[in-house]
Structure formats: C-alpha cells, structure tokens
Design brief:
heterodimer; A: mainly alpha; 6 helices; B: 388 residues; alpha+beta; four-stranded antiparallel beta sheet; 7 strands; globular
Amino acid sequence: MTRWQKIKSILIGLFMLAIAASLLTYREDAYGVIMVIFVMILIFSGLRMLVYYFAMAKNMTGGKMILYMGILLTDLGLFANSLVSVPNTYILLYLVAMLFLSGIIDILNALESKKIEGHWKLRMLRGVGSIAAAAGCLFFRNSPSTVVIIYCLGLIYNGVIHIINGFRTNDIIAIQ
Amino acid sequence: MNGDFHYYATYCASVIAGYSHEEALKICYSANLVDFCSRTFLRTVGGPLSAATTQLQSELADVRTDILGLQDITRIWASFHFLPRNLNALVKRGTRTYRNKYRLICGPNGELLKAAVELAKGKGYEAAGLAMHILADTWAHMYFAGTPSLVINNTDYNFRELIPCESGFENRPVVFSHNPAAADDPETGRYTASLYQVSENSIMNLGHGRAGHLPDYSFMRYIYIPAWNEYREILKDNPSDYYHAFTQMVYALKYLRSEDGIFETDIYDTESVKPYEEKIMDILTVRRISSADAWQEFGESLSGEKIPAFSLMNYQKEYREAENGNKENTCLGRFFVAAMSQKSMVTSRIFSTGSILAGRSIDYKVEGLRGIRDYWQIVGEELGVGKK
C-alpha cells in the first residue's frame, strides 16, 4: 500500500467505528440511519459502476451490461431515497443472510483445513458463532435494538480490520 | 494444468533431461506441491506464511478483496500460475489501472519466464520443480491474468469446443454450469465455471475461473472471445501447447542441470523428445479428466522405477523435526525459500513498471532490511545477512 492508501484505510476504519458508535447510541431509532446508509450505498455503487464502465469496462467484451447496471443502480438509489420508510424486515433479512453466508464459509474452511490436519477449531467456532448470530437475529426479529447491535458488531469488525491494514507492513524486499 | 502433468509429466521430462529417478521424484514433487502449498498447509507444517504458492477454495471464499488482499492474491497467482508474458505491453486504450491489469496476462516465452528459470539455477531440485510448474502453466493458462479482473478474465457464452472427427474437427457449444459439486463431463460437453460477477475484483474473476477447467485439460481445443481481445476470437489448442510445454521443460531442466549455459525463451528440446512424440501426443489427446495413469506408466517405462503417488505428507516430518536455523536445508525449507524468491522477483518486476497490483517492492541495497519479515530470509540466503 502507498502512504495515501494507508491513511485512507485508517480513515475509513475510523469512520466505520464512528457510525457504529452512533448506531449503538440511537438503538431503535437507528433503522432510519441504516436506511440512509443503504441509499448511499446504492447511489455510490451505481456511480462507481458508471465510472468503472468509462474507465475500464468499455474496453471489455460485453461491457455495455455494466453501463446499464450502473444506470439502474443509481436510479434505484434515488428511488429508495424518495421513500419515507422501508419495512424493517428487509433490513433484517439482509443482515441475517450476510451472517449466515459468512458462517457457512467459515465452516467449509474449517472442514478443508481439518482434512489436511490443519488448525480448524477456532474457525469452526467462528462459523458456528456466525450462524448462531444469524439465528439470533431471526429469533429477536421483534427487537430492533438487538439487530442494530449485531449490525454494529459487523461494522466494528470491518473498521478495526481497516485500521490494522493501515498499519501493516506489506513491502516485499528484493535484491535488484 | 492438473496434477497428472505437474507430477508425472514433470517426472518424465526430468528423466529425459538426464536426472536420476530420485532426483526426478524431488523435482516433480516440488512441481506439484505448488498447487498445494497454501497458508493452511504452511500453518500445519509451521512454515513461513509468505511462502504460500496457492490459495485453497475455502481461503479464496474468505479472502478480502481490499487493496492488501488483492495484492496478496496477485503475488501468489501471478508469480506461480499466471506468469505475465509482457509487463511492458503497449496498451493504447483504457486507464492506467486497465493497462496494469492487461500487462499481467499470462503467456509463454516472456522475459519473466527466463528470469524465473534463471532464478532456479543452482538452488536445488525444489527450485527446479517450482520453475517447471511456472513454465508449464504459462502454456496452459495463456490469455488469463493472475489477478481478479472482470475486464481481463471474463468470457461470454460464445464458447465452442473442437472435437476431432473423421472430416477434421466438429464444433460443439460448451455448456457451463456453476455448481461446484458437479463434475466436468467431456462426453456431453458440460463443464463447471465460476459465476459471472459484475464486480471487477470479485474472486470469481481470478485467472481462468470463468472458463472453468478447460485450460487444465490437455485434450481440449476450444474457441472463445476473451474480454480483453476487442471481440476477436481465440483458438486454444491444448495438445499442441502441452507438447510445447513438455519439450521446453526438457530444455529448461537440461539448462538447470548444466554447470553453465544460458536459458533462452522459445527453444524446445524436440530432438530428445522425438522418440516419444507419438506416445506423448496419445496421452495428451485422449479425452479424459486425468491422464495420471498413462503418464505414470510412461514415466515408469522411461526410468524402469516405480513412481509413488504424490503425497502431501512427504518431507513434512523432516521439516518439522529440523532445528530452527537448519530448516532451510530440508526439502520443504528449500522449496519455501525458492517460492519466496520467485514471489519477490515477480513483485519487484511488476512494481518496476509502475503498478502496485502485486504490492510494493523495496530494494535491499537502497533501503536496507525492511518489509515483510519472512522475506528477510531470502536476503540472508543471497548476502548472508538478516534472519537465518
């Protein structure tokens, strides 16, 4: 990573921690904030895809698809922004699906590692933990506060990883 | 390429190049180990994690595709499985990022191949085996890049297989499914490939994932349109490419065995291989997923010795029981050092073109001993300083 990329990674990490902290403060009222984040993600993804098309994908076989998707995503984001509220169920389903998938991947990873006598218990535990958390989300679906906490845990994890990445040594030494 | 070629065919090439049975076994073991030396394996044996030469499916599923994750992926896959053909290729379209990715497209007979083979000279059978894996893959994985990239590695539905028939070749559309549990079936033309993912850096767009294992089968001849080729079709003739790979391996192994000499690209030892050409082409063209048995039989007829099946457990005990400071003198230890040297060399070459896709490279002579600690070992090996 260049020096600028390191600084960017740390700033993104700090931003994620700040969002998690504000969500934890507002709890039940935080769904609105989560929705704003979703709208921003949609618009940002759409615009990013358009930039991607003009910068790279227009040189690619079948690249026009990226252009159409960019337009569609931006449009969806703007449409979502115009809605006053979105049923909490959709937000909840998104969180549960993400947790469940990461749990499955951890378990598969642990099983593969076990096959060649590698370390597997911690990863298996993490996988089972993620699936349990997903089940917990569903179980507490009537408690928005719990769901917000689980979402925040994900944000904190990602934020910390970004900050650690910013400080990691990653240069390769060579004799030229 | 599959284990049948990396293990048994490399054994055959070694024997034809003049190596003894025991030496050939060490070379082909190392050549095949490149496909198994993952971080999970390295944790198991207690080796340096920076020596990883591959990533397991489960590791890839869990990998982060931020800048550090992408650099790690590129270092591994571009160094060992998709060696770039031309890092200075003239690209007149797209942005700098596009140009940097385009330049990572793999192909045979590039400057980096010469550097990789020369790097292995005098470093033992393990380094020779590792170099043979890289060389063979430049033929099999031609036209794909060892970095996740939709704009380079994507393919579309226009994929046709050429099947030999009495009148020449018959065109048959390839049907790709995305079920990882489904086995490839050459009879019906149904193969597994990775999913189309719109994200540029999705792991689904790494290497030849979008073309499934077609580049890995020696019998395959197919026509398709790569994402980077401006809507022009490409014909990939695996039997011919694999034969070139084999004859070039024999040439390279003879070079590595010699006391001096030079290694030049685009030279093939067809003369030494000529007596076996028909046999080898027979093995290469039979439509089957693995030709391990046929290669094994051929290898055993060459050396008159039994070739044991590849086992990941080989040499583990020796490495684990070696004392710290002496591990580099074991078979696995030498392999790890060779892997890190190769990774360091490729990263450095890519970085020198102004691309940080494989990470940043620092010159020991300018900046001293810095960077990832595992790599200090290769400086120690070269100059007798740093961690030993």
